[in-house]
Specification:
Chain B: Its main location: nucleus. Chain B: Keywords: DNA replication, Nucleus. Chain B: It comes from Planoprotostelium fungivorum. The complex is a heterotrimer. Chain A is mainly alpha-helical. Chain A contains 6 helices and 5 strands, in the order H-H-H-H-H-E-E-E-E-H-E. Chain A folds into 2 domains: 124 residues, Methane Monooxygenase Hydroxylase, Chain G, domain 1; 47 residues, no CATH class. A 3-stranded antiparallel β-sheet of chain A has the order 4-1-5, with helices on one face. A two-stranded antiparallel ribbon of chain A has the order 2-3. The relative contact order of chain A is 0.09. A 3-stranded antiparallel β-sheet of chain B has the order 4-1-5. Chain B has a two-stranded antiparallel ribbon with strand order 2-3. Classes of the chains: A mainly alpha, B mainly alpha, C mainly alpha. The interface between A and C is large, with 55 and 53 residues.
Chain lengths: 190, 175, 237
């Protein structure tokens, strides 16, 4: 019985702070074992004459439970992994590091692509960027900046950024204008 | 997906108290300002006006206003609240201070301490008050007459909740 | 809420470099003002805040607040357009207030995002329920319905292709549903009572009752206050 192997798999996942490599081998072996156990049940039935089948009771029940348990463990393994993958999509959008992606199973890679599709579709439908402020409420720092050359601020999901005229001063979100300050288009006043 | 289903954390509590109204004395002139949450003003140096707490803090940070200390944060009122808190027993209703009084007080002490008369005393009274309210409310709950199994059942819930509460209060005080 | 009266339409006629015209007078049109409105308790901001907190704390998904979400989005859009005009000649205070107005937009956007995100979290957690149970299905917005359906399909095909298809026919189905969390209406919640309610039944087995008065804050099972939440007589904290 590879039950202990499946449990070890779940323990590894729950103790790990990152996503461990997908264990295709154990998933496949457990599937194979379920098939074997299932064949045993069928064989038990086939070997036993109809009127004696009552005495099979416990051997069949135990095998059914083994199947159910193994199946449940693997599904829990799959589910907990895609929970992590979903979280990666929310937090990192499309910039999930290569070394994390390498630990995905082949189906998990497909899952991420499709999940990204349906989530992006929903976000487009509702017109609100849901992936902002995931860590908590906005605590935005504003700075006063002088405009050295005409320029346009970065926009957001709904609007174009506003136009700034040379020689004027504004209070602007620091995160919005860091690039413009580095480029020398804006000057940080206070 | 912990970060998505965020339960109320301290940052959120601080954020939510931002919508409470507070009175300021502006140090600038402006006829009025229209926000989604309402229209505020007129702002001038002779009239006081009410604005949301978050806006008051921003104006204060830019040195554009004095914040008028709310009554409950004045030393004599805090003293009264403290006396009531000490006298009350477990199960008595909590003292009627604003729902967000701790979050507001800590931010006022942080950003507008020069607007608070007797600030040292106020700070001390707040600490006393908070300690007293924890003591009255939660540092001990009687668990007489509970069986082993009953205790076992409630232990994780109660201990986690109270520990969380303690952590919350410690971090509020340390700020 | 009317969206037609954009400042950009009125601006050119009124706005000249020399007049005393002020940004904050310009934005003095009342299509975005969030006064204590006719329909309900409290302001728009208060409503989205309550909705976000209720949705965050309730163990089940609540009815989608379509009108509220639309109103909030509209207000955000109008206000953004107001403050994003190419204004350049204003006083220090006016520019300062533009940044404050932007901060308010950020604050309200956060509440809106929290609200919608809490819903998506619940839809994913109980996905098959929203596809199979008509009552719950009705509580979703059309976009959420689409999301719930696609998500359920995706999860099912992922389990199937990764594992279940390798199993014998008799045991390869059924448990996808078992892998979605049950909605537990007996979870405890912290709720504030908004108006006097009087006695409510806590448990029909034991005939336990509780008296709920205005401003009470109680730790209570969700089920007995479920209908009070829908009626807006209590809010969750």
């Amino acid at each position: 019985m590879s039950n202990s192997k499946v449990i070890a798999l779940l323990q590894e996942l729950s103790n790990s702070s990152t996503l461990p490599p997908y264990d295709e081998e154990t998933v496949r072996e457990t599937g194979q074992e379920i098939n074997n156990t299932h064949s045993e049940i069928i064989q038990l039935f086939a070997e036993t004459p109809a009127k004696e089948r009552k005495r099979l009771g416990s051997s069949v029940v135990v095998r059914h439970h083994t199947i159910a348990r193994n199946k449940r463990c693997i599904l829990a393994y799959l589910k907990n992994r895609i929970d992590v993958i979903k979280q990666l999509r929310w937090e990192l959008d499309n910039s999930i590091p290569e070394d994390v992606m390498q630990n995905f199973g082949s189906k998990e890679g497909e899952f991420l692509v499709k999940y990204d599709e349906i989530l992006t579709q929903y976000i487009d439908d509702v017109g609100v960027d849901l992936c902002k402020d995931l860590q908590g409420p906005p605590q935005v720092l504003y700075i006063q900046a002088r405009v050295l050359e005409d320029c346009q601020l970065p926009g957001d999901d709904q609007e174009e950024g506003r136009l700034l005229k040379k020689g004027t001063e504004h209070f602007l979100k620091r995160s919005d204008v860091e690039g413009l300050i580095r480029a020398g288009v804006l000057q940080h006043v206070i | 997906m912990q970060s998505l289903s965020t339960l109320s954390k301290i940052d959120d509590l601080k954020f939510f108290c931002g919508d409470e109204k507070i009175t300021i004395q502006p140090k600038f002139q402006l006829k009025e300002a229209i926000f989604i949450g309402g229209t505020y003003g007129p702002f001038n140096s002779i009239e006081q006006c009410d604005v949301p707490f978050w806006l008051a803090l921003e104006l204060k940070r830019k040195q554009k206003c004095h914040i008028i200390v709310p009554e409950w944060l004045q030393a004599d009122n805090l003293e009264k609240s403290y006396t009531t808190e000490l006298a009350k027993k477990v199960g008595d209703p909590y003292e009627v201070l604003p729902y967000h009084y701790i979050e507001m007080a800590t931010q006022l002490l942080e950003y507008a301490s020069d607007d608070i008369p007797n600030v040292v005393k106020v700070r001390r009274l707040l600490e006393d008050l908070w300690t007293a309210s924890i003591t009255a409310g939660t540092s001990m709950i009687e668990l007489n007459n509970l069986t082993g199994m009953e205790l076992h059942n409630i232990r994780p819930i109660i201990t986690q909740a109270l520990t969380q509460f303690q952590t919350l209060s410690d971090s509020m005080l340390s700020q | 809420m009317h969206f037609e009266a954009l400042p950009t339409k009125r601006l050119p006629a009124q706005f000249t470099a020399n007049n005393e015209f002020k940004l904050l007078d310009l934005i003095l049109s009342n299509d975005i003002i969030d006064a204590e409105d006719e329909g309900g308790k409290g302001s728009l901001v208060q409503k989205i805040k309550t909705a976000a907190l209720n949705e965050r704390s309730a163990p089940e998904l609540l009815e989608y607040k379509e009108e509220l979400v639309d109103q909030i989005k509209q207000s955000l859009r109008s206000q953004k357009q107001r403050i994003n005009g190419p204004f350049t000649e204003f006083q220090f205070e006016e520019k300062l207030f533009t940044s404050f107005q932007q901060m308010e937009i950020d604050r309200i956007s956060y509440l809106l995002r929290s609200y919608l995100r809490s819903r998506i979290v619940k839809i994913e957690k109980h996905h098959s329920k929203f596809v199979s149970d008509e009552t719950y299905h009705q509580r979703l917005s059309p976009s959420e319905q689409k999301f719930a359906q696609s998500y359920t399909d995706l999860i099912k095909s992922h389990y199937r292709e990764s594992f279940l298809q390798s199993l014998p026919d008799r045991v390869n189905s059924g448990e996808e549903d078992a892998m979605t969390a049950r909605i537990n209406l007996d979870e405890y919640v912290i709720c504030r009572v908004l108006e006097r309610i009087g006695q409510i039944e806590l448990d029909d087995q034991t005939d336990e009752f509780a008296e709920l008065n205005e401003n009470d804050v109680v730790l209570i099972r969700y089920r007995p206050i479920q209908h009070l939440l829908v009626e807006g007589k209590v809010e969750l904290l």
